[in-house]
Amino acid sequence: MVINELIARINRVCRNDKEKDILSLAYIISLISYFCVIVVPLLIVTLEPFIKYGIYQTLSVYRYMINEGNIPLKKFIITFDVKEIIWILKISLIGLIPVISRIIFKKAKFQSEFIVRVLSISGLVFVSKDYLGWSIIFLVFLLIVYIIPLGERKYFNLINNAKYLEEIRKNYLYKNQEFLNKKFYEKLLGKFLVIAVLIFLIAVMLSYYMKISFIFMIIIISSLTCIFYLYKETKDKILTVFKKVIIFVIFVAISLYANRIVPSELEKILLLVITVYFSFDRVVSLGKDIQDIIKKYSLRYYYENEFLSVKDIKDEYLEMKFINSFEIDEHELIKQIILRDKVCFLDELKQLCKLYTRKKFEEYRQFVEFYLYIININSKEEINLNDEERNLKKILEIQNQKLFPIELYKEYATILYTQKKFDEAIEFYEEFLWYLNKGELNNMYQCYKKMGKDKKAGKLKQYYIDTM
Fold first, then answer.
1. Taking the alpha carbons of 170, 174, 175, 177 in that order, is the dihedral positive or negative?
2. What is the 3-state secondary structure (H, E, C) of 22-64?
3. Does residue 391 sit within a domain?
């Protein structure tokens, strides 16, 4: 829901594609900054004692196996420096910057949103005090912007892709209930332990045989294992892509941490070369794989995308003869309904909606019923508002749906407003504030006025209506 509101906010405050890209890039930099300055250091502070203890014990076992000595036992003690506690307090205060900034810059405008992001990033720079590192990051992003110019919706589409991936993830887990089963993770942990033991034994033997650092060797073997696992083909494309993402993140994290603890400069250089090559190779490959599964499995990509290409439609479009001759699943049928709407094939759209109803599918029934409602209301010469309110209310009462058409809720709010049911209409207008156009915002303003909420009406006009 957070990603949906973020995209709606960007769409609302930005007047063109260039502003959308600028604000999207600001949000991306802000997210990466929070991750690097807050999440990663917190993980290091929390996990480093455990990692060091694990490395110490592993090295002890290694020396015992090579030299046949005793395994020294070391007490495991976790300590926190006062400086670390002060640092944690500082980063906690950083979270207040966006809140305070939004109180000061209340208007829903591009300039206000951009300033809030800049202040948040500046606060992170101040806390980290790594000005050289931030200068490097700034120059890297400057290079990226020079290569991929602003205004082509590339950065905005990155955020949209995150939304589509979340949809795919939820649908995948819904269909594959075994991933919610505790036994699945117990079995996975067992496999991981077997692999870890094998990596350890291979690293011990190779480091002894080749006279190379044990830590360096265990990192190399782990990296090769990741690569073998990545190239292990599976029929499940979604699982393959998510597996690649997870392994990529783990690999980069291990490699970067390893560069801190490997003593030899030559070994550090070799690790860095492996990390850089593997990272860039995976990023390019992952980007293509992610785009492929979005186009194949995301319905929102087709439903919400204003700039859907002819090629995208052509690649997924199925002829009516084929649909009528073969059994297609619910997901594919909904995709075909959306594509008919995009190309304005209203007769086929109506046929497919009725086919969906006949098949008694349920997961997208609210979506299909709303399409049928729109088709029917457009064919009527006179509209009975009471009938339309009842029809929309029935559609809204359909539960356990996977796709929620925002237009349905906005349409219902407008019907309520037209019938002077201001207290009911305002609930929907407030819930979908960032999705409202200027006409709907004016309706919301009038609701507040009729209900005697002049203060809320004034704020709505000042911070939202007057900025459009």
1. positive
2. HHHHHHHHHHHHHHHHHHHHHHHHHHHHHHHHHHHHHHHHHHH
3. no
Q: Concatenated DSSP letters for 92-110? A: HHHTHHHHHHHHHS-S--H
In this structure, the answer to whether residues 225 and 340 fall within a common structural domain is no
Q: From CA 224, how far away is CA 442, in angstroms rounded?
A: 61
52-94 confidence digits (pLDDT tens): 556 555 556 555 555 555 545 555 454 555 665 666 666 666 6
**How many other CB atoms sit within 10 Å of the CB of residue 378?**
8
pLDDT tens, residue by residue, 388-420: 889 999 999 998 898 888 999 999 999 999 999
* Domain match, 20 and 95 both: yes
Contact 164, 300 (CB under 8 A): yes
Q: Which residue type occupies 380? A: K
Residues 132 and 38 in one domain: yes
Residue 399: phi and psi, rounded to 5, are -105, 170
Q: Which of 8-12, 271-275, 284-288 has the lowest mean pLDDT?
A: 271-275
Q: What sign does the CA torsion over 127, 130, 135, 136 have?
A: negative
pTM as predicted: 0.76
Integer Cα distance of 359 and 338 in angstroms? 17
103 within domain boundaries: yes
